[in-house]
Specification:
about 675 residues, alpha/beta, TIM Barrel, Rossmann fold, Immunoglobulin-like, 7-stranded mixed sheet, 28 strands, binds alpha-D-galactopyranose
């Protein structure tokens, strides 16, 4: 069974916005959906003004008819609460509940997401419309999941935010003395004497207080979670059999703690839009998929949105090449998604996203985009077996042996303006590590270090890219895992500050210093464009450090400048494990060497001989078996070694059968853009 209620097929379809069209078009939609093999639509995401045209007055007639139409065609409905886009009446009635930017500008409707998530009037209106929807459709057979809100991510700096921020701070610190200490508020005369002196960090004269900024990020993430919880509580009561999700915008949504949200939804869902075409786009899709599965703690998840063809992103248009959308969808499915859904079904004729991709584009069904959708529907229709949840005690849908640390606190802390270099970005560092693994043919999970220290035992290698902020617990968990035999690679500037953003005195990398067997005495940030040679022909840029050995041995030294002859990369044998430290930002070739050496030392190989360099091989656990996917994203024929029974992907989406097999056991040639799925374990009779 898939992540949604009662569906045991790979979910295929997309956001459907019938309120933008006259009713006769709906019937054409249903006809085309049947041709494409669509089995799932997401309804109502931005329908608030159609559902509640005036405050407290509901119009459900159109929605009743659409849901019934979908149901009659065997299409499941993921029903959204429309709370991401309050209607114009909301601005008029509740001006105090609109968001205010950090510069003090009061926003009004005219786009979407215009509300202050802390405002009581917004919360009440959101609860009301969620209740009305839950009461009306909570037990409707067609509803297979609830899609709460859309891409939580709003942040505001108005009076309602100030009020809730203070409450959150009181709960975190208890008394002002502790807050003043955490915020180091004696600096620049910021000591607070009363709670109501505290404001959200709006525009100010010069550098803001970094701990206040970090706390505000933590608070804003918590507020969004509160908004979700309020609706979830209502829907769970009114619609107890229907699972809940909310779509995460990946991977850049900053005001959001994906781990916390992942723990509360019934299943994780994500929206993924490529940042590049071709093979690099495939690496990016794999990153999004691995993030989603990690935030789902290894369970199956759902690709709620992706672009069908043209992605309309401000300043950038990406067109998917022929076949690319099929390969990308299959990547997501291989990496644990129970479906491939799109934004959106039919292209609107106007509106802010008029040129954004659609399954039925402006040119209509006689188009490459629609033909590819039909082809994709057919292929996904042949992959029903993959949606069986994995069996067994370690019921992870994909089981990588490598993990990358991802900690929102460090993400936010590295956004601070008060750092010795503006070079650092946790997202960019994590992405660089993931990309390197992907090109090596290795899948990875993301982990939060203190989630469950024993969870690290699932991995042989852990990459820790510039985790600036580390708690004592995180450091102890990492150290214990290394001593138990783990291999860790830790990048520069990690472990430097504690949870209050206070520097750990005695040397940078303080939290991890013992594990790494080093002391970082002083950072040596480099001016932009300057590269320093290191031994072995590589170079360092942006960041270097003066590292003192405290038990570790030298792997590579700086070969020029004031640090010439000093350690650049070190290795510390500790207990049964090894901890490597990389004290600089490295050129690409040296970065590759560091990662591939760590993989070799930890005994991790590519998923199959021939995987890597743009050929993706992933094992998805499904039921009691394993389905292996191999996808060639390159423009050349490539050979991978595989073993299993190929799934026949040529049969019709109507279930017309094709015989699986014959069994392969050895090299398989994959033409440019070709893919194959195999049952690694024998198929059930
Ligand atoms: C997001 C939103 C959609 C749409 C797409 C377009 O993912 O959820 O409503 O705006 O982006 O890129």
């Amino acid at each position: 069974m898939s992540v949604v209620r009662g569906v045991d097929r790979v979910l295929f379809g997309g956001d459907y916005n019938p309120e933008q069209w006259p009713e006769h078009v709906w019937h054409d939609d249903a006809r085309l959906m049947a041709i494409a093999g669509v089995n799932t639509v997401t309804l109502g995401v931005f329908s608030w003004s159609s559902i509640e045209p005036r405050e407290g007055e509901y119009d459900f007639g159109w929605l009743d008819r659409v849901i019934d139409l979908m149901h009659a065609h065997g299409i499941g409905v993921v029903l959204a609460t429309p709370t991401a886009s309050p209607p114009p009446w909301f601005t008029k009635a509740h001006p105090e509940a609109l968001n205010r930017t950090a510069d003090g500008v009061q926003l009004v409707h005219g786009s979407r997401d215009v509300y202050d998530p802390s405002a009581d009037a917004y919360r009440a209106a959101a609860r009301r419309v969620a209740t009305a929807l839950g009461e009306r459709y909570g037990r409707h057979e067609a509803v297979v999941a609830w899609h709460v809100h859309n891409e939580y991510g709003s942040v505001s700096y108005g009076p309602a935010t100030d009020r809730r921020f203070r409450e959150w701070l009181r709960a975190r610190y208890g008394d002002l003395g502790r807050l003043n200490e955490a915020w180091w508020s004696a600096f620049w005369s910021q000591r607070y004497a009363e709670w109501d002196e505290i404001l959200a960090p709006q525009a100010t004269q010069y550098l803001p207080n970094p701990t206040q900024m970090l706390d505000f990020r933590r608070f804003s993430a918590e507020v969004l979670l509160e908004c979700y919880r309020e609706q979830a509580e209502i829907l769970r009561a009114l619609s107890p059999d229907v699972p809940l999700t909310t779509n995460f915008m990946l991977p850049t949504w900053l005001h959001f703690d994906h781990w916390d949200f992942g723990a509360e939804v019934d299943f994780v869902s994500i929206d993924h839009y490529s940042d590049s075409p071709g093979v690099e786009g495939a690496a990016h899709a794999a990153f999004g998929a691995d993030q989603a599965r990690s935030f789902a703690r290894g369970r199956p998840w759902l690709l709620m949105e992706q672009g069908a063809n043209v992605t309309q992103v401000p300043g950038r248009m990406l067109v998917k090449e022929p076949g690319e959308v099929i390969r990308t969808s299959l990547q997501h499915v291989a990496r644990g998604s129970d479906g491939a859904l799109f934004f959106q079904w039919r292209a609107p004729l106007a509106g802010a996203e008029v040129f954004h991709s659609s399954m039925v584009p402006h040119s209509g069904p006689d188009s490459r985009a629609f033909r590819e959708m039909t082809e994709l529907g057919r292929v996904l229709g042949r992959l029903t077996d993959v949606v069986a949840p994995p069996e067994g005690s370690d019921a992870r849908v994909v089981t990588p042996r490598v993990a990358i640390a991802w900690e929102p606190d460090s993400w936010w802390a590295l956004e601070s303006a008060s750092l010795p270099s503006d070079h650092f970005s946790l997202l960019a560092s994590v992405r660089r590590a993931h990309r390197e693994l992907w090109f090596a043919g290795v899948s990875a999970d993301l982990v939060r270090l203190d989630d469950d220290p024993a969870a690290l035992d699932a991995y042989d290698l852990l990459l820790v890219p510039s985790q600036l902020l580390a708690t004592d617990e995180q450091a102890a968990g990492l150290d214990a895992w290394v001593r138990r035999g783990g291999h860790a690679v830790v990048w520069c500037f990690s472990g430097t500050v504690d949870a209050d953003l206070h520097v750990r005195p005695g040397g940078y990398s303080g939290a991890f210093a013992e594990t790494l067997g080093i002391r970082v005495e002083e950072p040596h940030p480099l001016p932009k464009g300057v590269a320093i040679a290191i031994e072995g022909g590589g170079s360092a840029h942006d960041w270097t450090e003066h590292v003192e050995l405290r038990g570790a041995s030298v792997v590579t030294r700086y070969a020029e400048g004031v640090l010439s002859g000093e350690p650049a990369i070190t290795e510390n044998r500790r207990g049964d494990g090894v901890a490597t430290y990389v004290s600089a930002e490295l050129d690409d070739a040296t970065f590759t060497t560091v990662v591939t050496s760590a993989l070799a030392a930890a005994g991790v190989r590519a998923e199959a001989p021939g995987a890597g360099g743009g050929v993706e091989v992933v094992r998805r656990h499904a039921g009691s078996g394993v389905v292996v996917a191999a996808i060639n994203h390159t423009a050349e024929t490539r050979t991978v070694t595989l073993r299993g029974t190929p799934i026949d992907l040529e049969g019709g989406a109507d279930g017309a059968d094709g015989a699986d097999g014959p069994v392969v056991d050895g090299p398989v040639d994959l033409a440019p853009g070709a893919f194959v799925f195999l049952h690694e374990a024998p198929s059930p009779a």
